[in-house]
Amino acid sequence: MVNLLVIAWNIRGLGRKEKSRAIKNLVATKKPGIVFLQETKLPKISLVSQRRLSGNLLQGFCFAPAEGSAGGLLSMWDENWFEVTSRTVNRRFIALLGKIKENQLECAFINVYGPAANAEKRDFSKSCCLIARVWISLSVLEVISMFTCHRRRKLGIIRTC
Fold this sequence. Notes:
This protein is of the alpha+beta class. It contains 4 helices and 7 strands.
């Protein structure tokens, strides 16, 4: 059985070697299934840079670039543990939908760097809600298909955001 360990860290800039080393050491020591980094402040990241951070432990990665000197997200995961079937990348979040390989459990992991400005919070919430609604609807459709017509009527009402 694999223990689930998710590391989320607002790194406040990934440009310095000390921070890269700290992430590399944390990944090597804790052996997480998923690592979420917020506020990387990087406009891009190469596969080589990602490998330096995670070694061979976290093969999958997804990146949302910083805008200017703000933001930037990096999500990394162990492909032997979690299989990503769908991903959504936004400047404020990276959403990963997939399966935990050990038990085929479908789930989602979302790396979020929310806005500080009140004016942006509403649009951000709507974006998150839209993603959740689509994924929840797909999951509910799969569950519904497993039940008889009688049971379907009971499960037909879905609350959305």
